[in-house]
Amino acid sequence: MDAIEVLKTRRSVRTYKGEPVPKKIIEDIVDCGRLAATAINIQPWEFVVVTDPGMLRRIAKTTDYGKFIADAPVCVLVLCRDTKYYLEDGSGGQSEAAPGRG
To answer: How many CB atoms lie within 10 A of CB 42?
Structure first.
């Protein structure tokens, strides 16, 4: 699949199979996010992978629009340092993380 096809067929998933996600896939997703472009290549982020069901429920409770996280097998948190472009860079890190992984 080429890059244009990936971008055109991207979708959000809010229902899950209840199966664990293989570690290799999680590592690939985080690596894609890590490689996203940032302002002056500052890469102000840390990626935290959460798979513990109790912690996923706790994270979901803190959100206004992320209640579905409670049912997800994994959640990748993107935490950014307070830099001039943290919002743009953090958004890039999360949006680049999983195109085509559905």
So the answer is: 14
